[in-house]
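Technical annex B. To support the medicinal chemistry partners, we prepared a structural model of the target in complex with 1-O-phosphono-alpha-D-glucopyranose, based solely on the information shown next.
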Amino acid sequence: MPLQIAKAVFPAAGLGTRFLPATKAQPKEMLPLVDKPLIQYVIEEAVASGIRNITIITGRGKNAIEDHFDVSYELEHVLELRGKQDQLNEVRQISNMINFSYVRQKEALGLGHAILVSRDAVGNEPFAVMLGDDIIDSEVPCLRQMMDLFEKLQASIIATCEVPKSEISHYGVIRGYPVDGFNGRVVRVQDVVEKPSAAEAPSNLAIIGRYILMPEIFGVLEKTASGKGNEIQLTDAIRLLLEQQPVYAYMFQGTRYDAGDKLGFLKATVEFALRRADLGAEFKQYLKSLKL
Ligand code: G1P
């Protein structure tokens, strides 16, 4: 039986320093794009991809995330009173459909460390990692695209896309070669490096926040020393994993927004609002009236 992906881990214990002061007392994962918190977009992507078990890695000051995905009696009551059956179903569906668990990362020691603390929740099976900063709009959910590829490759897969040289130092960067038979979308990874300078970057292929990882990553993470920014980096662990087994990168189909960055967040807000049936037309009129 080929291995399948049933669980996704959402690291959400970061300090959100790129979004201060908004994130001083509120998790950045709860910043709303139009009217939905960032993390909900990514959880909906997981659910649309067929994932039913979600582990959120939280840290200090992240209670709002747990509250958000809890059954909300007050909200359900109000929606019921107002006869908003569709919204009521939607709210109920998300808490019914998914099995949420929370693991506390006691210290913000880095993304790699956050994944390591999910070890018991994940167990000995391949799993997905989804970062809430990366919002991906696509016809087939990005994670579903990766899960379909996983069925064929049975190995770790990192989402990637090309980014301009001027931005490459914000990302993990991939060196590899294209694998035949995938229309240039699959790369066999030879090396990965976390946030290199533009001069040192081995390519323009950036790591984007969707991963499918084989469980051997946990053993490797235990041995991964602190790297960039004095944090335990997932990228460094993947580099060690490459010594044991193949890792692939996948150029997903869709548009990705870096919602953890102020400008990226604004762009996503405008585009998502324009697409809304209830807001789009009026919002477009308003933007036009600005005569920029
Ligand atoms: C993390 C990873 C980096 C990856 C990025 C994608 O960095 O460490 O390799 O390119 O996510 O969003 P962060 O943005 O958390 O600093």
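Notes passed to the chemistry partners:
The chain has two domains: 7-155+208-258, 261-292.
The first strand starts at residue 7 and ends at 12.
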